[in-house]
Structures are given as structure tokens and as C-alpha cells.
């Protein structure tokens, strides 16, 4: 009897711990208990601070749903008429690129360049109000260059050199670079203004 009770508790605990995985087209993953799937939406229970909440996700934004046993149901389909230019496998690689860029892409040089540019222009040209134009201008320029993969951010070596993976990586990496460049340049402008107000300008007063 005791063994049966322990086995029942184990199975119950395993069932509660098991989660379904919803993979979105943007590479993000949702862990929850899927209640139903249709061509319109995916309904699932999501744990929010220990409480179960019913959520819905449009099927058009879902690539696949993998249940707790590992069985995957792919909702994405290849059909250029609907704008789905990539095949299922190509889209899977594209999504891997999105995921790796979201986790591991680090636009270090653009951030450093933005900070130095913001601080340097403000200090060198004694800019004040016009300095507010520097961050958005620099961030806008950072939307154009090619996105280079951050070393070590590719989790699957088989994706190295794959064009569809690179497309997904770039799709997430480019806006990430723009946002980081905006904030780093703004920080540089702020530092430049402080240096001007606290050090350079007082030193120039007779």
C-alpha cells in the first residue's frame, strides 16, 4: 500500500512538472500546459507566480507545439502565397538564428563607438540642446551595417555559414544593436555634458 502511494505521488509530481513547449515565430518559447490547438489559436495554461492563467496565442505566430512527451506539431507551413517563403526546415534554422542572437549577440563595438562619439562631440563642439540629436542619428546609422555573429553565440555548430540562420540572427541582432547604440550614445552625451559643465566651462571662466 505504501509503495502504491509513493508511486502515485511520483507520477503526480512528474505530471505536474511536465510542460508543453510553444515555439513562436520570433524565436521565443512559452512553457505551459496546452489545452487545445486549432488553425486559429493555441490555448494553454500559464503559471504566473504560482497561479494558473488561461492564455491564447494566434496560430499564425506559432511555429510548433511540442508536448511533454516530445511529440511536435508544426503549425508553420511553406506557402509563398501567404508570405511563407521559407520551407519548414529553413524556418527552423531561421528561428535558431533569432534565438542565438537574442541570447548571445553583443554589439560591443557599436556601443563603444556611440559612447565615444556622443561624449566627444559634446566636449569638442560644446553642444548643448543640439546634443539631443546625436543618439537617434547614430542609432539610425547602426540599422544599416551587416550584423556580425558574436563569437561563441552559435549554439549549434551545424548552423555555421547557413544563410537562413544568418537571416534570423540578423533580424534580431539589428534592432538589438540599434537600441544598445541609442542608449550608449545617450550615456556618452550625458558624460560629455557633465565634463563640460563641471570641468571645462569653469576652467575657462576668468
Descriptive notes:
The model is unreliable at 4-16 (pLDDT under 50). The protein starts with a helix and ends with a helix. The longest helix has 42 residues, at 163-204. A hairpin with a 4-residue loop joins strand 1 (20-24) and strand 2. It is built from five helices and six strands, in the order αββββββαααα. The protein folds into two domains: 2-76, SH3 type barrels (Roll); 98-204, no CATH class. The protein has a six-stranded antiparallel beta sheet with strand order 4-3-2-1-5-6, with no helix packed on it. With 206 residues, it is of the alpha+beta class. The protein is elongated. It has helices spanning 2-17, 88-104, 108-125, 134-141, 163-204, and strands spanning 20-24, 29-37, 41-48, 51-58, 62-66, 72-74.
Show the helix and strand layout.
Blueprint: H1 2-17, E1 20-24, E2 29-37, E3 41-48, E4 51-58, E5 62-66, E6 72-74, H2 88-104, H3 108-125, H4 134-141, H5 163-204
Helix pairs in contact: 2-5, 3-5, 4-5
Amino acid at each position: 500500500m505504501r509503495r502504491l502511494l509513493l508511486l502515485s505521488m511520483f507520477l503526480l509530481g512528474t505530471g505536474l512538472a511536465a510542460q508543453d513547449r510553444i515555439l513562436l515565430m520570433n524565436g521565443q518559447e512559452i512553457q505551459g500546459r496546452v489545452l487545445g490547438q486549432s488553425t486559429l489559436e493555441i490555448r494553454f495554461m500559464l503559471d504566473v507566480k504560482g497561479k494558473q492563467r488561461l492564455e491564447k496565442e494566434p496560430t499564425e505566430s506559432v511555429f510548433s507545439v511540442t508536448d511533454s512527451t516530445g511529440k511536435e506539431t508544426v503549425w508553420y507551413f511553406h506557402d509563398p502565397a501567404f508570405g511563407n517563403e521559407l520551407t519548414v526546415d529553413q524556418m527552423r534554422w531561421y528561428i535558431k538564428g533569432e534565438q542565438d542572437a537574442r541570447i548571445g549577440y553583443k554589439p560591443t563595438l557599436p556601443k563603444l563607438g556611440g559612447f565615444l562619439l556622443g561624449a566627444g562631440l559634446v566636449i569638442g563642439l560644446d553642444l548643448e540642446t543640439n546634443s539631443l540629436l546625436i543618439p537617434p542619428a547614430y542609432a539610425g546609422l547602426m540599422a544599416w551595417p551587416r550584423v556580425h555573429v558574436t563569437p561563441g553565440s552559435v549554439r549549434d555548430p551545424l548552423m555555421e555559414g547557413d544563410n537562413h540562420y544568418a537571416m534570423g540572427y540578423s533580424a534580431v541582432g539589428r534592432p538589438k544593436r540599434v537600441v544598445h547604440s541609442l542608449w550608449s550614445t545617450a550615456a556618452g552625451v550625458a558624460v560629455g555634458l557633465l565634463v563640460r559643465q563641471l570641468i571645462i566651462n569653469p576652467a575657462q571662466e576668468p
